[in-house]
Please model this.
Amino acid sequence: MINIIASHGSELLSGLGQTVLCSVIALFFSLIIGSMFAIFEVLPSKVLHTIGRIYVEVVRNIPLLVVTMFFYIVIPQYVASINGFVAGTIGLTIYTSAFIAETVRAGIQSVSGGQMEAARSNGMTYWQAMRYIVLPQAFKIVIPPLGNQFINLVKNSSVLAFVAGFDLMYVGNDIASTSFDTINSYLVVGVMYLIITMPLSYYMRYLEKRTNRGAA
Amino acid sequence: MSMIEFHNVEKYYGKFHALTDINLTIEKGETVVLIGPSGSGKSTLIRTINGLESINSGQLVVNGFDLASKKTNMNKIRREVGMVFQHFNLYNNKSVLENIMLAPRVVLGRKDDENKKVAMELLDLVGLADKAESMPSMLSGGQKQRIAIARSLAMHPKCILFDEPTSALDPEMIDDVLNVMKKIAKDSSMTMVVVTHEMGFAREVGDRVIFMDEGQILEDDQAKEFFDGQPSNERARQFLSKIIKH
Ligand SMILES: Nc1ncnc2c1ncn2[C@@H]1O[C@H](COP(=O)(O)OP(=O)(O)OP(=O)(O)O)[C@@H](O)[C@H]1O
Ligand SMILES: [Mg+2]
Model:
């Protein structure tokens, strides 16, 4: 392992950088897109509800690799030339957003309907009730499952390796095939993923504890 | 103008006929007690008054607003018609004080000084000034319900709807809540519609008693007649004798 790190350190670091960058970008946009579809699904409007449902059901039931390949092949052909990193990040964003939509929707719906009714009876509009009462409570409920989604997202970003995204996994494949030290190459890559995900995992646990105490 | 007027109101849940030909007028300042067996439509009726349930036909006018009309802004009605629920529904993410101050601030734009002053006065009225900073989860049921009443009052409503406000409470807390409600009822300008089987309350401050069964109003009497005479409807008589025995 030491050998691999010593001889390929800079490539590994750049791969790690790409993985982190892709994860952060995908996280940001999938949170926005996912929350939007989650809200569609809980709105009283039938049309928006249906759109939200279809989006979630379609996207989350297709393998990530297929979603990503779709963007890697279709967008360059019909829209604009993009590289593997961008295509992979888009694929990952879309894929993750469906899971985030599910998580956030479940969070919103687990807030008792009585909270919304009380807020409406108190004269608030639907959006005021959402903003001041329902969403803050849903947010607390959703933090732990969202944390899991983030960790999955980091791991799933290895899909970039298939579309030449120059991420950690891609670099790992590359080193394995050139150095012929396959086991150690992937061991190093595994440890580097852990370096990203373990702190996330612990941070989520900490947040969870803190909000549980705060909610008392 | 009356506070609440139902004319030939019908309400269905799918095929189920929940309200049948409701005709009812409630005047400003009246305290009306609504009784009837489980499933008779009391909650449905009271929830149509602030638009939590829609009606299918007929006319319903509340505080001058026509609820059957799509143009009516429900939020405006609800500003002046408060509601108190069986399960309190305090905002779990807000302190007691914030529960009371939130709607006046975001709906009416009441300034903080004034808002807090009103809230503290109401906490005094319900006897819970020392709980201002507590979170709802730290309160007993009876305390929660008194806060919920204060929250309604903070909007300075013309009318408050109560749907079984004491039926989720331990017996020793019921009187605390009823006493607050009696205080409000004695304010002659407040209209109250109360679903309850607390006949002591009905007798003491009720102006009228309405008996419902199977989605219909079967009896609508002055409280005095209802208790001193006898309800003319047979089912109402039976029901009354049952709840008074308990
Ligand atoms: N959302 C709904 N969908 C379908 N049926 C409903 C709905 N709400 C109420 N009902 C039905 O309408 C009837 C009247 O219900 P409602 O809650 O108004 O009765 P209630 O008199 O308040 O009874 P309780 O004393 O048990 O509270 C019941 O048969 C009930 O099952
Ligand atoms: Mg009921």
User: Anything to note?
Assistant: The longest helix of chain A spans residues 2-42. The pocket of magnesium ion (ligand 2) is lined by residues B 42-43, 163-164 (CB under 6 Å). Residues 20 and 154 of chain A are 8 Å apart (CA to CA).
